[in-house]
Design goal:
The chain has 580 residues and is α/β, with parallel strands linked by helices. The chain has 22 helices and 22 strands. It binds adenosine-5'-diphosphate and magnesium ion.
């Protein structure tokens, strides 16, 4: 354990962190702060929630030249939320430092106001890559005095496609200047190491390893829900756990929107947050969530990255995250500051069952399977809690008005039992939420209601029908019965998919790989295939094309196929028509 008194930091900082309730420095802080103060480049990594903001923020503040017109430090963060969060945290550290101004800049906020603030002069600029580039291009942000450049959540910025922006910002740093480049990143993929190599000078690598990669105080459970019943399962679990503050993670923006619609439809008020939303709206959402006005927030990983809200008691993984590191980030939203937390993951189907095993292996934590509460259990629990509430209310004094109402009702000859029953049914709803396994899907029959999808791979790519089936089952988590006839062509394949599953297949298979080939999937626009004529024609074309390319060296016009493989005869006919 290292206390802040043992670290080479000023009394102003010590006073500020003490006020913030920090007693000991975390490992990443204890190791990074001295290094950064000494002027070294640092490449740091530690789990989420271990205080990386202070690890780079405190030494940065210490090194600012008070009252300098142009910034001495530039901090780059992936999202607007993180920019505001880091700026707010840094202001707290700098509370007793004279003349250290911090200006956050990000998209979605009027640029003029930011220009004004930058003009007035500041020591630290915290910004998103896009907005920083914007200001650099307008020359409203000057790098001439920057001697520290810090990338927070660097891997996330690369994932989000900010690679070029970041490289450009880094290479815009004044040449030969003796500046420090500091990188904090949850993972160190090849891309990060490349940036390190190119832009850092003998970086000190600080890595806080932990064998248990998620936070000990978080209990981790997974539930298996029948296919297509996940939303219902979630409703059951929200009812069961009745969290005070709950974050639900989805892998895509679309899923965030859909899930919040679904929940709201069933009377569960849920906020949602993803990158497509306007900044003002996002800030409002975060405030409502923080203040507990609306206790359920559905978010994508990127929108929620690094967001630090205390007292989240339940984290739900509505999907298994695509990136294992995300699981740790998600679960790290709860169980903060030594408090107890619960993280639950919902899975359905074989693929996700394997997925959860991967998560267990990766995180080295024991995520235990629990059975969903049965409808009966839930109904009973709801009824018990209603009875308890009524009992509680019965302890209150009888009001004048309610007595008058009761007397009026009885004067009309209504029995007491009827009055009570009416009041209860007005106040008590105990709906059965269906989470039962569906009946087995109907056998594939000739009247199979199918849509034909065209996959951009075929025999020429060495694909067999089995490859396509396997890929669809793997990617889409479907029953094999949803797949009908498959026709392989030279360079594409036609696949019949049960009409109600077409969207899933279109979404999930788009740009997936089958036998190492990227696949483009579209609804087949050709008239209904019946007798395989189209296939014959296609094959004839390919043959002719091959023949054509062998004999065309002498320049004689080829018959049958033109350059892009379109039917030659057809185009002649067409041009004749035109001439008429
Ligand atoms: P990270 O960036 O590593 O995910 P943050 O910098 O967001 O973590 O810090 C997570 C939380 O821990 C914040 O609420 C922060 O104020 C708190 N914190 C950071 N350092 C300390 C410390 N030394 N002692 C107590 N709390 C701390
Ligand atoms: Mg952070």
């Amino acid at each position: 354990m290292t206390t802040f008194n043992e670290l080479p930091v000023s009394s102003e900082i010590k006073k500020a962190v003490e006020e913030m309730g920090y007693e000991n420095a975390t490992d990443i802080q204890a190791q990074s702060i001295p290094c950064i103060l000494e002027g070294k480049d640092v490449l740091g990594r530690s789990n989420t929630g271990t205080g990386k903001t202070a690890a780079f923020g405190i030494p940065t503040i210490e090194k600012i030249i008070p009252g300098n017109k142009f910034p001495n430090a530039l901090i780059i963060c992936p999202t607007r939320e993180l920019v505001t969060q880091v700026a707010t945290e840094l202001r707290k550290f700098a509370k007793y430092k004279e003349g250290v101004k911090i200006v956050p800049i990000y998209g979605g906020q009027p640029i003029d106001r930011q220009i004004q603030l930058l003009k007035r002069g500041c020591g630290i600029v915290v910004g998103t890559p896009g907005r920083i580039m914007d200001h650099l291009n307008r020359r409203t942000l000057k790098l001439q005095d920057v001697n520290m450049i810090i990338l927070d959540e660097a891997d996330e910025m690369l994932n989000m496609g900010f690679k070029e922006d970041i490289e450009e910002i880094l290479s815009m740093m004044p040449e030969n200047s003796e500046h420090q480049t500091i990188l904090f990143s949850a993972t160190w993929p090849e891309e990060i190491l490349k940036i390190t190599k190119q832009f850092q000078k003998n970086p000190v690598r600080i890595e806080i390893a932990s064998s248990q990669r998620t936070i000990d105080t978080v209990e981790q459970i997974y539930y298996e829900a029948p296919r297509g019943k996940k939303v219902n399962a979630l409703r059951v679990l929200l009812n069961h756990y009745d969290p005070d503050l709950c974050m639900i993670f989805c892998n895509t923006k679309k899923m965030v929107d859909e899930l919040s619609d679904e929940l709201n439809k069933h009377g569960i008020k849920a906020l949602s947050l993803h990158g497509d939303m306007k900044q003002e709206y996002r800030s409002r959402v975060m405030d409502q969530f923080r203040n507990g006005v609306s206790p359920i927030l559905i978010a994508t990983d990127v929108a929620a990255r690094g967001i630090d809200v205390d007292d989240i008691d339940l984290v739900v993984n509505f999907d298994i995250p695509q990136d294992m590191e995300y699981y740790i980030h998600r679960v790290g939203r709860t169980g903060r500051a030594g408090k107890k937390g619960l993280a639950i993951t919902l899975i359905s189907g074989r693929k996700q069952r394997n997925g959860i095993k991967d998560v267990i292996r990766y995180t080295k934590t024991n995520i235990v399977r629990h059975a969903l509460p049965t409808s009966e259990q839930l109904m009973k629990a709801n009824r018990d809690s209603f009875i308890a509430k009524v009992k509680d209310a019965c302890n209150e004094d009888i009001t004048e008005e309610s007595l008058e109402i009761a007397n009026a009702l009885m004067a009309d000859g209504i029995a007491l039992e009827n009055i009570i029953s009416a009041l209860i049914s007005m106040n008590y709803k105990n709906e059965i939420i269906d989470i039962e396994e569906e009946e087995k899907v109907k056998q594939y029959a000739s009247d199979f209601d199918a849509v034909t999808l065209k996959f951009s791979i075929g025999r020429a790519q060495g694909v067999h029908p089995g490859n396509i089936v396997a890929a669809i089952l793997e990617e889409c988590d479907l029953n094999a019965k949803a797949i009908g006839r498959i026709d392989l062509h030279a360079n594409f394949s036609l696949v019949d998919i049960a009409a109600d599953k077409v969207d899933i297949v279109l979404n999930n298979m788009q740009h997936s790989t089958i036998r190492k080939h990227e696949v483009v999937v579209e609804i087949d626009q050709a008239p209904k295939r019946k007798n395989g004529k189209r296939k014959e024609r296609e094959e004839r074309q390919v043959k002719e094309k091959r023949r054509g390319s062998r004999t065309s060296k002498d320049g004689t016009p080829r018959r049958g196929a033109n350059r892009n493989g379109a039917n030659h005869d057809k185009s002649i006919r067409k041009s004749k028509k035109k001439k008429k």
